[in-house]
Amino acid sequence: MQKISILLLVTALVFSCASVKQRTRKSIDATLYSSFYDTQFTGFLVLDPIAKDTLYDYNSDKYFTPASNTKIFTLYTALKTLPKHVPALNYTHQNDTLYFEGTGDPSFLHHYLQDSTAYSFLEKSSNLAFSHANFQDTHMGPGWSWDDFAWYYSPERSAFPLFGNTVLIQQTPNFKVSPDYFKDSVVQVQNTWNREKDKNIFYFDTTERDSLEIPFKTETHTVKNILERLFSKSVTLIDKMPQGKKGTLYGIDTDSLYVRLMHESDNFIAEQLLIMASGILTDTLNSENARNHILKNHLKDLPQQPRWVDGSGLSRYNLFTPQSMVYVLNLLYKEVPEERLFSIFPTGGVSGTVESWYGGKEEPYIFAKSGSLSNNYCLSGYLRTRKGKLLIFSFMNNHFRHSSSEVKERMQSIFEAIREGY
């Protein structure tokens, strides 16, 4: 009699769980099949990685413009190729001269990272010779909007970045320009553009702004001039490094780059991570090398091969599917300890670009990367259910004419239903 009672109880619990899951699916269906989504393109996939069970699938094999969800692939590439500490520069000593070349490290006197490792190293040498021959990439990514050149989120890519390849202009407490080399290139006047398109001439309206960050053009002679101003000594430009073994100077912990990459959605760091990865894999700095390597060697079993053209997601040429996003997120979860992984990813309601959204009432339950371009919003990452189950998801919205807040509100209602239902 007792065995029958236990069996009935177990059966009732199974049916109860099935009923809750069925109600959850119907709730999601009611949202995604509503008229709100009639004129946009949406894909959504939820995976239980432990049970290897697909809990919800809606257009997950279709290609979407991912925006900054592209950075999930960039993060994976960096984690598979870069060492624990950032390779800051390559160098060799010959006679009384220090010869050096860039590795793509974005942290040299970066306005926010403020790493001075390479600066302190170079400062000690009397004679400096800089080679730029290893950079075999374009300064701007394919498909980037031409009129983004003057905005902080679109710095040029380069072999030896300085100050994040941007000029930081601050009005208070005193007028300050960093790097100081550009101080005489700032015109304090209102202008349609923050910078001349093809020149390092900047415009700053002191009546409207306290601070402004503007990308500068990174021609080799500009890098030379900035370095000479920093060190108060001449820097010789050379076509290539001398023959012989090169040493590598290592800088800050790479996790500091990964956190800024994901929390601030830093496009510059994203691009430079792929360039650094290329330098590890080959003798040249070209982000395509890194993308091709990771797709061929680590992601050859992706459900759908992406069109992947940059590290940041600034380009609308990028095309990824929710299935491929979830595939890489699953690899990350298997290969990176959870505590470290969730510290790198923004936390819903707490940090990064999801600080104002997807917050749990008692505790955080969303750890994910957002991606935004005009008329596009994507979110991919991890969801912790009320029962403690860890799920992986990718939710991609393209070509909507609603406000992004309306899109996020519906996404949030779906996430909350999943949190309660699974």
Order of helices and strands: HEEHEEHEEEEEEHEEHHHHHEEEH
Mean pLDDT across all residues, rounded?
95
Helix content: 25-40%
Cα-to-Cα separation, first versus last residue: 32 Å
Number of helices: 10
Count of separate structural domains = 2
Spatial strand sequence of the major β-sheet? 2-1-15-14-13
Low-confidence stretches: none
Task: Briefly note the structural class of the backbone.
Answer: alpha+beta
The main sheet comes to: 5 strands, antiparallel
User: Using DSSP, what is the number of strands?
Assistant: 15
Task: Describe, in plain words, how this protein is organized in 3D.
This protein is α+β, with helices and mostly antiparallel strands and 422 residues long. It folds into two domains: 26-74 and 286-421, 3-Layer(aba) Sandwich (Beta-lactamase), CATH 3.40.710; 75-281, no CATH class. The chain has ten helices and 15 strands. The strands form four sheets. A five-stranded antiparallel beta sheet has the order 2-1-15-14-13, with helices on both faces. Strands 11-5-4-3-12 form a five-stranded mixed beta sheet. A hairpin with a 5-residue loop joins strand 14 and strand 15 (390-398). Helix 5 runs antiparallel to helix 6 (267-281). The longest helix has 31 residues, at 2-32. The radius of gyration is 24 Å and the shape is globular.
